[in-house]
Amino acid sequence: MENEKILCLKGISKKFKGIEVLKNINLNMNKGEVVGIVGSNGSGKTTLLRIIMGLIYPNEGVVKVDGNKVLPGLLAGLPTSVGALIENPIFLPQFTGYTNLRMLASIRNVINDDDIKSVIKLVGLDINNKKTVEKYSLGMRQRLGIAQAIMEKPSLILFDEPTNGLDSNGVEIFKKIVKNMKSAGSSFIIVSHRREEIDELSDSIYEIENGSLTILRDLHNNEGVQ
Question: CB-based burial of residue 68 (10 Å sphere; 0-12 exposed, 13-18 middle, 19+ buried)?
Fold first, then answer.
């Protein structure tokens, strides 16, 4: 049923300078599902995530998040129930991780300081660390990026190569977060070149290559998938 779908992509196509980057992408995603997407560099993975976020818009097709259309040019048409870590996380380098998250949280004002401190601990960072983000290691930045994506407990979370820069402990923390949040009802799209992570975490797995999406494994029998 439509109200059980967290994400519906219908006929999504995107061109940049006349070159078709995405070709008639169709995807129905259930609430509480983890979808994994694999693909080579330049295959269109990140472009697809940006379209779901409303950061860019397709030339053709419809995006619905939790039953609501993502509309171009209208702030009210942007999805508010989506969190994301797409490519390298960007923060204000002169502030601490906590201060960065607090400033981001003030935009929607749906979580408090205790929530921010809890998510910092959840990703394995030290809330008492007064380092500014410019002094963070790559792994610390990645953990902070994961915290930013999940801190408001969005319905749909998009992760683009989420374990880049993480040590083995960080990878295990990430896997635990996904599994626990899925159990609580959150949905995920995880893009990764690490197929073993995709296999372990995902209910359904797709491959995107040359702008086309094909199914590799589907435990839910989604319909309308190219």
Answer: middle
**In angstroms, rounded to a whole number, what is the distance separating the alpha carbons of residues 143 and 48?**
23
Residue with token string 């979370």: 157
Q: Which amino acid is present at 99?
A: T
Q: Rounded CA gap, 187 and 210, in Å?
A: 26
Q: Name, in order, each residue with C-beta under 8 angstroms of 5's C-beta and a sequence gap of 6 or more.
A: 28, 29, 30, 31, 64, 67
27 beta partners: 9
Cβ pair 112, 164 in contact under 8 A: no
Q: Which helix (H) or strand (E) holds 173?
A: helix 168-183
- The pLDDT, as a whole number, for residue 76 is 55
Residue predicted with more confidence, 187 or 42: 187
Q: Which stretches within 28-167 are classed as H helix?
A: 45-53, 97-108, 113-122, 138-150
End-to-end CA distance of the chain: 19
Q: Helices marked H in the chain — which ranges? A: 45-53, 97-108, 113-122, 138-150, 168-183, 195-201
pLDDT at res. 133: 97
Q: What is the largest CA-CA distance in the chain?
A: 50
Residue type, 79: P
Element holding 111 (H helix, E strand): none
| CB-facing half-sphere around the CA of 151: CA atoms within 13 A | 32
pTM of the model: 0.91
The sign of the torsion formed by the CA atoms of 156, 149, 22, 44 equals negative
Both tokens assigned to 119: 């998510």
pLDDT greater than 60 at residue 225:
no
